[in-house]
Amino acid sequence: MKPLLELENVSYAYHSKNGETFALSDISFQVQRGEFIAVVGPSGCGKSTLLSLISGLLRPEGGRILLEGETENTFREKIGYMLQKDHLFEWRTIYRNVVLGLEIQHKLNNESRTRVDKMLMDYGLYRFRSARPSELSGGMRQRAALIRTLALDPELLLLDEPFSALDFQTRLSVCDDVYSILRREKKTAILVTHDLSEAVSMADRIIVLSARPARVKKILRIRFAEQAQTPFERRNMPEFKEYFNLLWKELNEHG
Ligand code: ADP
Ligand code: MG
């Protein structure tokens, strides 16, 4: 099967008047449709830069990035981006926040409204559609941000440390929520995280990056004996610790 996303020898440097920051070096990997990929690596190594390149916000200096076999600019529409901060607008209700992307892209119609309503119902926010973001818990806000991203029906979701602003307990339950929502909606996702347990508990494969300029150090396939566990359940399985230790070693090895 043709991969949804292909990176071929991608490199990137920031140029400023104070000099160059070489961020990514010769990055190659592929993502299949429906896969959940986690990207881990030391802080400042170039993880967010990688997502900006994939989303089309930045252009690679070397190599190329193909989405469904194409390098063209149709990119953006097929990609949803979710960040650490939920960026919900306080002056809009939850509903008006969730349909914001649809409004901007002139895609708010009966069909998209039905899809949004269904997601709000399925994911426990329908009751809160007239509430303001400040009335919701951190976890609910993140769910609302995810629904806003999914409302545009993207092919590929990019998640940049989306849970790191949440406290530990909320983070565990939001992880489970986001994971089950993405599986159910059959989305392909790339999650950037510095939290190794988050990566092991959610991903099908983990891409380990080196310190800056980031290179692909290792790609680790994650397999648990039993099928269809939640991230929370995975944390209690024997394989979890093995993968965690493997990653830990990989990241603390120099070179
Ligand atoms: P990560 O997300 O892994 O923490 P980033 O991709 O944000 O890392 O950054 C990689 C490197 O590029 C860092 O050294 C950072 O300081 C630098 N960098 C990020 N954005 C810019 C920018 N707009 N201009 C110059 N340097 C940048
Ligand atoms: Mg970052």
Beta-strand percentage?
15-25%
Class per helix and strand makeup: alpha/beta
Unreliable stretches (pLDDT < 50, length at least 5) are none
Major sheet attributes: 6 strands, mixed
Structural shape: globular
Q: Total helix count?
A: 10
Mean pLDDT: 91
Helix fraction by DSSP (H/I, runs of at least 4): 25-40%
Computed over alpha carbons, the radius of gyration is: 18 Å
Topology, number of strands: 9
| Oligomeric composition of the shown chains | single chain
Q: Span from first to last CA?
A: 34 Å
Q: Report the order of strands and helices.
A: EEEHEHEHHHHEHEHEEHH
Distinct bound molecules? adenosine-5'-diphosphate, magnesium ion
**Order of strands in the sheet with the most strands?**
5-6-7-3-8-9
Walkthrough of the structure:
The protein is of the alpha/beta class. The chain contains 10 helices and 9 strands. The protein has a 6-stranded mixed β-sheet with strand order 5-6-7-3-8-9, with helices on both faces. It has a 3-stranded antiparallel β-sheet with strand order 2-1-4, covered by helices on one side. A hairpin with a 6-residue loop joins strand 8 and strand 9. Helix 5 runs antiparallel to helix 6, helix 6 runs parallel beside helix 7 and helix 8 packs across helix 10. The chain is globular. The mean pLDDT is 91.
Outline of the structure:
By secondary structure, the chain is α/β, with parallel strands linked by helices. It has ten helices and nine strands.
Question: Descriptors for this entry?
Answer:
globular; three-stranded antiparallel sheet; 9 strands; 10 helices; 255 residues; alpha/beta; 24% strand; binds adenosine-5'-diphosphate; binds magnesium ion; single chain
